[in-house]
Predict the structure.
Amino acid sequence: MRKDVRILLVGEPKVGKTSLIMSLVSEEFPEVVPYRVEEITIPADVTPEKVPTHIVDYSEAEQTDEQLFQEISKANVICIVYAVNNKTSIEKVTNHWIPLITENTDKDSRVPLILVGNKSDLVEHSSMETILPIMNQYSEIETCVECSAKNLKNISELFYYAQKAVLHPTGPLYCPEKKDMKPLCVKALTRIFKVSDLDNDGILNDIELNFFQRVCFNSPLEPQALEDVKNVVRKNLMDGVQHNGLTLKGFLFLHTLFIQRGRHETTWTVLRRFGYDDDLELNQDYLFPPLKIPPDCTTELNHNAYLFLQSVFDKHDKDRDCALSPDELRDLFDVFPYMPWGPDVNNTVCTNDQGWITYQGYLSQWTLTTYLDVQRCLEYLGYLGYSIIAEQESQAAGITVTRAKKIDLQKKQTQRNVFRCNVFGDMSSGKSGFLQAFLGRNFVRQKMIKEEHRSYYAISTTYVYGQEKYLLLHEVFPDFDYLTDVDMACDIVCLVYDVSNPYSFEYCAKVFKQYFMDSKTPCMMIAAKSDLPEVKQMYGCSPLEFCRRHKMPPPQSFTCNTAAEPNREIYTKLTTMAMYPHIIQEDLTSSTFWLRASVGATVFAVLGFAVYRLLLKTR
Ligand code: GDP
Ligand code: MG
């Protein structure tokens, strides 16, 4: 909303502009007035809308045309004053003042006008008959009012309307010719309806209406008021109320009614609460709240944000199969201005047998976005109405910025939940297979992935000592010329070679020696395609010898060419190494360490599954 309001009064001499301003300020009619009063500023707390308001007078006798034009272009709202007992002053409204104002204002930023008929104390009849046709002709006229500086009639109302015309303009909301809301307004209110329809049944029931009322107006509706609202809609619209709740049609009707009755500030309050600006676009401040991310830190969703995203999933998983069908996914993103997830997402996270994103996959993708592009995550949470529904200060309240990795390493412990593993390896060494196997896809299943839908990321959960952690795998493009610092920044490195290709190990050795030999990042050698006959690698030493020399764990045999889902053990190992990089040298090669890690993993994987089933049942 605007920070202040500038009201300009224009009109023929002697219609009472100066008297109106002085009557407002002194609350009595001034017998003697100057040609013009200086600009006055009314402090925010004494105005009805609580914004500082500047009132500017005009006098032909004291000001040049140039000064007038300047004031017109600076004004937020212009009151054209005429005297109800002076016909000429009324005629001048259309044949002088409106054209003059149009010429001196930007075409795009239309300034609302208010027609003010002063000296109503002098006549018996009203000027409205003459004025109404003018109002219909010019859509920039917000409203008209008859008043008297002498009787103090409608004086504060006049300035209130002027203020309201600036702060809550009807222009963007309503088309007077069509007597209907404008398409952008309908679109915004439709999104607000969908966000507020917490159970997604297409109806705002009493609980949802009360919640809506509370977040928008800070007060619940009285039960009787709630019934009254529904009755008004019922009376006017056949399908506005269903199952004792408000349908989208009813909701839109109600707002049309508010606007038509001059209560459009109600609609604006709702729109602004849901992040819209005066052009009915979502505000940048709303979508991108400030969030500081120091170097060496990463971004994760906190518990509260996961709960919210879980509720969003639940409300769209209509058949309760714990996966989002294409229709369900489209419905979920209906409150977005565009579809954020492409087909590559289905190859980045876990899906069910039909290839639909599962509950787990859905949360994984959110985790990935938060980690890789937190701004985008804030934007997405904004579209879903996170801060409103979860009653948080802003979207940023859903994000945890982790402490610097340096401190984690010093303290030898971490509170992070997401670990990044960059996967290096020569062309066709088996990197993609390694990523896809993490999502439970064997060789046969991977063959079904279309080239244009492939992803260079895979994210899912693993259990390390009973704690659920996300492991984010990133396939690094093998060309040395393209490697950048970003490719080196991760919690653990995988070096993948193809056991059946004698020339593939050399690449791993080269990457390791060039980038990781002196770094603190733990590395793991993956001997991929272990279902194929192993050949001797054309390199100075064997992979096993290489690992021993560089104090790495021995190469880990891996294949995704399995009948069932590929083995997940390796991913637990990687996550463990990422979490505890310091144990690498001493402990990692000892079998008891791995035994502990993997036993923990199975026990809790089973437990986790059971817990999840339980959750499902209670929903
Ligand atoms: P301006 O030139 O538009 O600023 O008009 P003024 O404020 O100087 O007023 C012109 C004359 O109209 C003065 O004599 C005022 O006393 C008188 N006047 C202003 N407002 C009213 C009103 O509401 N009723 C009556 N009866 N006289 C008014
Ligand atoms: Mg004057």
